[in-house]
From TrEMBL:
This is MMPL family transporter. It comes from the Bacteria. It is a multi-pass membrane protein. SUPFAM superfamilies: Multidrug efflux transporter AcrB transmembrane domain. Residues 193-402 form the Membrane transport protein MMPL domain. The keyword Transmembrane helix applies. Pfam families: MMPL. It is found in: Cell membrane. It comes from Dyella humi. The keyword Transmembrane applies. Signal peptide: none annotated. The lineage of its organism: Bacteria, Pseudomonadati, Pseudomonadota, Gammaproteobacteria, Lysobacterales. Keywords: Cell membrane, Membrane, Transmembrane, Transmembrane helix. The chain crosses the membrane at residues 6-29, 260-276, 282-304, 352-375, 381-401, 432-450, 647-667, 674-692, 698-718, 730-755, 761-782. InterPro entries: MMPL_dom, Mycobact_MmpL.
Length: 792
């Protein structure tokens, strides 16, 4: 291959890289929206066998995704209300919010009664149903109790419209009646011992996961909050919503990217300068890696349409592995001295690079088999980045590295040689067998202490202050836990409501026993037609003789006109679900109705409120046809557990797939020596994790898959390179150690990531790569020149 051909190949590769970079820049910045996905729920895999349940989970998760819930608190009631009004007015002036609800428009509580009044005789609570079914039921006593009841300050029916109180009792069990928030001075207010809390809600004019929306909204909220805290001393604001979690996750990820990227870049730069003693190799190594990362980012956004925070942080760490390919070519150049010729150098390193790339791609490909979009994207990112970084060595570096270079620094070679001598002398012969046996015995207690934890909450670590505020808001407002819900399905809406009623009877039993705070479902607001007809059947004997009913009411002091209206209202028409859904009172609850179509039938959601365990809630749904408990967190945890159990099989499969490749290249008798470093490195890593009492997750096993691939790379580099450096023992191991340290500087830094999943990933790679790099000398048989240098 002539020099002209080298430059021609490099030119084509540079043009392709430039086009890819321009496409990536347009995908990231030129479409008016950021493809960076901060929605942590979007990373989670589908877990429900029922497609409708998966749709319901996503719908519920994002029902309030663009809504911000705020509680303005002050020990003084008047100050709390004044601060809430000013807070709402300040937020309303900013166009980042589509709507602000603080001070309510003048509202007549009777508007909550009016939609139900025509259907009053079809709406009965369980207690009234049971009383009416008793043989000795006395309607006159019920009438007397109703007349002597205290005046109702909340949502109440007029005495002449509901003389027996049946509708009043039913209204008192509705969600708006049970809420601790009460309308006072046109503000939704809750009172506690430490003061008053006033609700303010805001809806964003865009997605909570849009970076520009996040920054604008947070700035507006902070500014308005500082203003009311200044004007009303003692005021503080509790806040919750996807906006705050997304912004926190983005901030943490950006900090991790900057920290991992900056520290690993600086560390790798210093190492390359010390070892290669020149700035040019440093720049070319980073150029090769940058090309890989640009390509990986572009392809990931093209394939997935977005890029996760997890992938960005992982991509910053990929720097340490992608630079390995250029390091090997640069090492070959440094070791060749004045005899350097770029084409011959490429032929020298090509087998090692291709073998190393193959083992790495195998590890990442198995990672991509997991049905978890974030892991698949990480695998895609890594495979593209590694492949393009390797191709840059083949097509770009030979044209740019045609002149000889300085040899590797003598200090790095001496250190590597000394370490190689120590490891070689202690891992061969009888001494190696004894050391291996001792190490095995020391590892057994660590292995015996290994345990697993598949909880999906280990994937993320939301800020403690946000979690505390959300919990406090839930306690004050009575909001439920939206991560668990029941999906109720039926042939039509009537069957769905009947099945809801069966479920809600069991949920109410839990409430009565103190196991549950409450529940929210449509059947509690709109009974089934069967239930409504049964209710009217219970009341029918009382209205069967209108004159008797008139006499009871006349004796109680009711006017004849009111008595006539009540008697003539019997029997009332049933309340239709579809008619109710069109009323204003149904607006906050419409998301509970999943609809009715020919494919799935009808379906609704029932939300348990409180902190009941998933096992207890699942038990409630047992033997109830059409009722399924959907617990996204538990479902994902179960999926993680299943694939974590498969991971050991995948790890064994990966090792077995590498065996024939190494057997073909090095001979079957050499395969155990070549595979020993990564396999032992995995074993020692597991032992240390056991001693640290670190519960294993899916991410630990995925990292061990990469330890196998990276460790095999180091064995390949050393075995392929040593025959070419017989004149300078230790030089090849110095390059392997350089590759290992660069990987440790990048992947190892993930152990300090703010994301628990990446912490697990980073810690495992830190241990695994470290052990493997130390054990690599055992993978090759030293030649006579090396042996002589050892004796010297």
């Amino acid at each position: 291959m002539t020099e002209r051909n080298l430059w021609l190949r490099a030119g084509w590769f540079a043009v392709a890289t430039l086009l890819l970079a321009l496409l990536g820049a347009w995908l990231l910045f030129g479409r008016g929206r950021s493809p960076i996905q901060t929605d942590l729920l979007a990373m989670l895999p589908a877990t429900e066998r029922n497609p409708l349940a998966e749709v319901a989970a996503q719908r519920l998760a994002h029902a309030n995704g663009d809504r911000v819930i705020l509680l303005v608190a002050n020990a003084d009631d008047e100050h709390a209300k004044a601060a809430a009004r000013e807070f709402g007015q300040a937020l309303a002036k900013d166009d980042v919010f589509a709507s602000i609800t603080a001070e309510l428009p003048p509202f007549d509580l009777q508007q909550l009664v009016t939609p139900y009044l025509p259907h009053r005789f079809a709406l009965l609570i369980d207690a009234d149903r049971q009383a009416l079914a008793q043989p000795g039921y006395d309607p006159q006593q019920t009438l007397a109790q109703r007349i002597n009841e205290p005046f109702v300050t909340g949502v109440g029916t007029r005495l002449q419209d509901d003389p027996f109180g049946w509708l009043q009792h039913w209204l008192e069990q509705q969600p708006w009646s049970r809420s601790p928030l009460l309308p006072e001075d046109n503000l939704l207010t809750a009172h506690r011992d430490d003061g008053s809390y006033v609700l303010v809600t805001a809806t964003l004019r865009g997605s909570s996961y849009d970076d520009a929306i996040q920054r604008h909204a947070l700035s507006a909220l902070d500014q308005a909050e500082r203003a009311i805290e200044h004007d009303h001393p003692g005021t503080h604001v509790l806040r919750t919503g996807a906006l705050f979690y997304a912004a926190s996750a983005r901030s943490d990820a950006e900090r991790d990217v900057h920290r991992v990227g900056l520290m690993s870049t600086l560390g790798i730069a210093v190492l390359l300068l010390l070892v290669f003693r020149s700035l040019r190799p440093l720049l070319l190594a980073f150029l090769s890696t940058a090309v890989g990362i640009v390509a990986a980012t572009t392809v990931s956004v093209l394939v997935f349409g977005q890029i996760y925070l997890l992938t960005l942080v992982f991509g910053a760490a990929l720097l340490g592995e992608a630079v390995d390919y250029s390091i090997q070519y640069l090492t070959a150049r440094a070791n060749a001295g004045e005899t350097w010729e770029p084409r011959r150098g490429l032929r020298q390193v090509r087998p090692a690079l291709l073998l190393a790339l193959g083992t790495s791609l195998l590890g990442y490909a198995l990672l991509g088999l997991v049905p978890f979009s974030a892991l698949r994207q990480m695998a895609c990112f890594a495979m593209v980045g590694m492949a393009v970084a390797c191709l840059s060595v083949f097509f770009l570096l030979p044209a740019l590295l045609q002149r000889p270079a300085k040899s590797l620094s003598a200090g790095s070679v001496r250190i590597a040689l000394a370490l190689q001598n120590v490891m070689a002398s202690h891992t061969s012969g009888r001494r190696g067998v004894l050391l291996g046996a001792l190490t095995f015995l020391l590892a057994i207690p660590g292995w015996s202490q290994l345990r697993h934890d598949d909880d999906v909450h280990l994937l993320i670590s939301p800020p403690a202050n946000l979690v505390a505020q959300e919990k406090q808001i839930r306690e004050i407002t009575g909001l439920g836990n939206g991560t668990q819900f029941y999906l109720v399905q039926g042939a039509d809406e009537e069957q769905v409501l009947q099945r809801e009623e069966a479920l809600e009877q069991r949920l109410q039993a839990m409430v009565d026993q103190g196991q549950l705070q409450g529940w929210m479902g449509l059947a509690g607001m709109v009974p089934s037609l069967q239930r409504q007809h049964a209710n009217q059947a219970l009341l029918a004997p009382l209205f069967a003789q209108p004159d008797r009913m008139r006499q009871w009411l006349r004796n109680a002091g009711f006017r004849d006109a009111d008595i006539d209206r009540l008697v003539q209202a019997w029997p009332s028409t049933p309340l239709s679900l579809q008619a109710w859904l069109k009323t204003p009172v149904a607006t906050p609850f419409r998301y509970l109705w999943m609809g009715d179509d020919a494919q799935h039938g009808a379906a609704s959601l029932v939300l348990p409120q409180g902190d009941a365990s998933s096992a207890l809630l699942k038990q409630v749904a047992n033997n109830l046809p059409g009722v399924t408990l959907v617990d996204k967190a538990a479902g994902v945890s179960e999926l993680f557990g299943r694939y974590r159990r498969y991971a050991s099989i995948w790890l064994l499969a990966a090792a077995l797939l590498i065996v024939p490749v190494f057997g073909w290249r090095y001979g079957w008798r050499s395969v155990p020596r070549v595979l020993a470093p990564p396999v032992l490195g995995i074993g020692f890593t597991l032992a240390v994790l056991g001693y640290l009492h670190h519960p294993l997750t899916l991410f630990h096993w995925m990292a061990l898959m990469l330890v196998l691939g990276v460790g095999a790379n180091y064995a390949v580099f050393l075995r392929e390179g040593e025959p070419h450096v017989t004149h300078r023992p230790g030089a090849m191991y110095a390059s392997v150690l350089l590759s290992a340290i660069t990987a440790l500087l990048s992947f190892g830094l993930l152990a300090w990531s703010s994301m628990p999943a990446l912490k697990d990933f980073g810690l495992t790679l830190l241990l695994g790569i470290g052990f493997t790099a130390l054990l690599v000398p055992a993978s090759t048989t030293m030649n006579s020149s090396f042996a002589r240098s050892t004796r010297r």
